[in-house]
Specification:
Elements (H helix, E strand, L loop, with lengths): L32 E2 L18 E6 L6 H8 L2 H6 L3 E6 L3 H10 L4 E4 L1 H10 L5 E10 L1 E5 L14 E4 L5 H12 L14 E4 L5 H7 L4 E5 L2 H7 L3 E5 L10 E8 H6 L1 H20 L1 H16 L5 H7 L3 E3 L5 H13 L15 H9 L14
Parallel strand pairs: 2-3, 2-4, 7-8, 7-9
Antiparallel strand pairs: 1-3, 4-11, 5-11, 5-12, 6-9, 6-10
Amino acid sequence: MSAARPLTTLRAVALTAALPLLLTACGYGSEAKKDDAPKADVAADAKKLSASEVRIGYFPNLTHATALVGLQEGLIAKELGATTIKPQSFNAGPSEIEALNGGSLDIGFIGPSPSINAYVKSKGSNLRIISGSASGGVKLVVNPAKIKTLDDLKGKNIATPQKGNTQDVAFLNWISEKGWKVDPESGKGDVSVVRTDNKVTPDAFKSGSIDGAWVPEPTASKLVADGGSVLLDETALWPDKKFVITNIIVSQKFLKEHADVVEAVLKGTVKTNEWINANPDKAKASANAKLAAEGGKPLDAKVIDPAWPSILITDDPLAATLKTQSEWAVKAKLIEQPDLNGIYDLTLLNKVLKAAGKPEVSDAGLGAK
């Protein structure tokens, strides 16, 4: 029995199963934005934890649905009792890592590549991955008038969100597997890899300056709504059709000093994930309401409906797939061989899962000793 339950299996329960993103699973671009999370009902005698507040970062992306729904519904706040959540939304992995390193962020939802890069650059001193959050939700969308088969990508301009980000690494590896050559720094070669902010990608696609994009949701579904066609879903390339797209990370300092607060947050995320998978329609509406609060308007049904079922919400960090992604980055010469030993600390997550009667999850041998 798995700790995750694919959203796609719930279509029969939901009239429409879908979710979006205003940017995407490793969206990049702007400054962090402070947010006001809904206040959960807190009793006057609520248990006081070791910290009066916890600062939680996330992206306004569909692939960060755990954060969106958990904050919107107060499911995380409820577990924190008298400890206040101070949410911050980010559009860039590097800016979220900078906030974590600078001490202005305690816990964050983020993609695997920024997690790996930050851990390696700090020589293992700045963060730990403490849980999974989402798998999948990444697609290759193309202009069907120019590209009809995967072989047609040769010579075309294909966007990824940023050099070295999770989707960029996956696409460079796919190109290499085809036997094609691309310079990872410039993106030039048999395919032109055009690093483009997810916010800009739809306009670039409509203008014809790119012929397609390897991007997360909801950017992928936005391109489909603009006439694009899904040529490949990245899940097809992975064993069991699962790969990590969003982790939960924590500052090692905060984990050491406030383990009780971290455990409470994980209780909230586990309950949030369970609620999302059991209530897909309500969860979709909740996430869209949060995205509307972030961006000023909700995602259109033609975007959110096809986006949601491609994402699996999970407590499992799918650690073996992060290891594979790091190997791809090494192969592409984007990073040197990393020492990832200690990047995971799943002790508190497994404690929470066990107490909830759920199976524990693995760190694939990369746990803190």
